[in-house]
Amino acid sequence: MIEVNGVQIETDAEGFLSNLDDWTEEVAVCLSQQDKLELGEKHWQVINWIRTYYAEYGTSPNLRIITKNIGNDLGEEFGDKK
């Protein structure tokens, strides 16, 4: 369970959201802070790309899909396999 803006949001044993409808940018920031990660502009570009993919296909993209398509959509630096 995490608390964001005074609201309790349920997570599973691994820390993932139990209900995808609970996702907000504030929730993403809270979860990233737990991992000691500050989300920058490039993080948000990737997060939003993945969310758009999920909205369109109803599933998260696998690594092959990400590396094949993200570079075309966001630029070569995002598609670099290094």
Strand line-up in the sheet with most strands: 1-2
Instruction: Report the sheet-strand fraction.
Output: 5-15%
Please report the number of helical segments.
4
Termini, distance in Å?
Answer: 35 Å
Oligomer: single chain
Low-pLDDT runs of 5+ residues are: none
Q: How many β-strand stretches?
A: 2
Secondary-structure content class: mainly alpha
Q: Main sheet?
A: 2 strands, antiparallel
The run of helices and strands is: EEHHHH
Total number of distinct structural domains: 2
Mean pLDDT, to the nearest integer, reads 89
* Helix content class: 40-55%
Verbal overview:
- It is a single chain.
- The protein is mostly helical and 82 residues long.
- It folds into 2 domains: 2-34, Dissimilatory Siroheme-sulfite Reductase, Chain: A, domain 1 (2-Layer Sandwich), CATH 3.30.1420; 41-79.
- 52% of the residues lie in helices and 7% in strands.
- The protein contains 4 helices and 2 strands.
- The longest helix has 17 residues, at 41-57.
- It is globular, with a radius of gyration of 14 Å.
- The N and C termini lie far apart (35 Å).
